Task: structure prediction
Amino acid sequence: MKHSCPLLFALTGAIMLVSSLATAAQSTTPRAVVELYTSQGCNSCPPADRVLYELNQEDSDLLVLSYHVDYWNYLGWVDPFSDARYSDRQRDYASRMRERYVYTPQVIINGDAVVRATAKQNIESTSKSVTPLRNISEITITSGNATSPASGTVTLQDAGTSNTTAQVASRLWLIGFDREHQRDVLSGENAGKRLVHANVVREMTDLGTWDGKARDIPFAMNSACDGGIILMVQDGRGGPITAASVVRF
Result:
């Protein structure tokens, strides 16, 4: 479905998550971040939800993120996972890509490559051909875990060069996601269907811009996210994702 609307540089490091139970888990760097923009109120979305669910099960090198937009909530079913901020994020992409509208389902790989959301093989092949993501920084969790909101500190290492003169400032995003949700839709275009979603985004925090210098940033998630936490570096709003590190609970 379509909806009308107006319209790094090198990084190094590692990421580690330390839980409130004093256990530690080393992060992984996904081959690519596959963002799905979807809605339970859109009858075109269930096939894409299923494809991304399968990819998440089959390919651990990918990080799938499901962002539920809110602009279809007027069609008779309010998506319980929807958030206006996720719609705004998609619009930021549309603006940079000079698209006249946003739509669902839409898949964007590493914030740059748009692939048909039900084209499973194309998503896989594109994720292997894009520029590899880099690791960044370290995350220390001082409280919380998979069942309670996490808080801690993001420690950014000096990247070796300053980003203050870069044309587009690097922006940091901290995202928490749930591993899986299955929901029965009772009304609207998908009435009577049970929908399955993988890595549903529940919390998205803009940590601001980064100049490439060493820095500590405290954070506190508002929601318990049983799937994990990812830290991403992006070229401005709606720009390519250049680095990402994820810890899965």
